[in-house]
């Protein structure tokens, strides 16, 4: 199987040794195939963010394996996990988390420079990505000069800047009004399809989930 992501037997309890442990994930397994876009659907509090943090190597599970591009990352050192995160994974959150003192283009250029890409190549890629989401004319603007939907489109470009193989998105349009959410989500899907990216996208919007290849409900797999 050529999976980009495999989670195998993942369990996670917060505050395990304290007086009030919170059991969030229990023996959860799922996979995302190459080029596949999977919706992760569950109500608020069910563990979507926890699962995405574990898949994104930002947190560690109590049990189970996290396999990314056929490499088991569970027991790897921090350095290898950081490297995998920077080169193979792209992240989008509910709030854009763009750097406020930099322009849209610079926000997309900086992570590429951190990965050793030349300034010229990084700028060209930023311009190309901004063009794809209809923001070529806003490249020199800072996040505060943009609307919520525009900020989120820049965040998509930043997530794709280093050509990851897997996009992890945590309710990427959850902060937008329904009409904007629809358009912005379409742009994300187009971007993902055009680049052949694999994605795991958390949402509690069934309509959005229906536009993806497959839907995983958290309480069913847990
Ligand atoms: P979702 O993203 O689906 O809303 P989360 O993964 O954020 O769910 O949270 C799942 C559960 O774990 C919730 O009950 C939440 O309160 C709890 N939780 C999340 N993070 C922590 C933490 N650091 N410590 C204790 N409980 C947590
Ligand atoms: Mg969440």
TrEMBL record:
GO terms for molecular function: ATP binding. Residues 5-221 form the ABC transporter domain. Pfam families: ABC_tran (PF00005). Keywords: ATP-binding, Nucleotide-binding, Transport. SUPFAM superfamilies: P-loop containing nucleoside triphosphate hydrolases. It comes from the Bacteria. InterPro entries: AAA+_ATPase, ABC_transporter-like_ATP-bd, ABC_transporter-like_CS, ABC_transpr_LolD-like, MacB-like_ATP-bd, P-loop_NTPase. Belongs to the ABC transporter superfamily. This is ABC transporter ATP-binding protein. It comes from Paracoccus aurantius.
């Amino acid at each position: 199987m050529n999976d980009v992501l495999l989670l195998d037997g993942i369990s996670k309890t917060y505050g395990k040794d304290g007086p009030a442990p919170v059991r969030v994930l229990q023996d959860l397994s799922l996979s995302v195939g190459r080029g596949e876009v999977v919706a992760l659907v569950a109500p608020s509090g069910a563990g979507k963010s926890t699962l995405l943090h574990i898949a994104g190597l930002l947190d560690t599970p109590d049990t189970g394996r996290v396999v990314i591009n056929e490499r088991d990352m569970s027991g790897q050192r921090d350095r290898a996990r950081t490297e995998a995160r920077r080169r193979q994974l792209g992240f989008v959150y509910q709030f854009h988390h763009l750097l406020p003192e930099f322009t849209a283009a610079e926000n997309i250029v900086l992570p590429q420079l951190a990965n050793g890409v030349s300034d010229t190549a990084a700028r060209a890629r930023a311009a190309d990505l901004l063009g794809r989401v209809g923001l070529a004319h806003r490249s020199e603007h800072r996040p505060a000069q943009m609307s919520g939907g525009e900020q989120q489109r820049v965040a998509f470009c930043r997530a794709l800047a280093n050509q990851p193989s897997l996009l992890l998105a945590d309710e990427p349009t959850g902060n937008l009004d329904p009409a904007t959410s629809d358009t912005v989500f379409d742009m994300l899907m187009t971007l993902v399809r055009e680049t052949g990216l694999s994605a795991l996208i958390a949402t509690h919007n069934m309509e959005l989930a229906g536009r993806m290849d497959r839907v995983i409900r958290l309480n069913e797999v847990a």
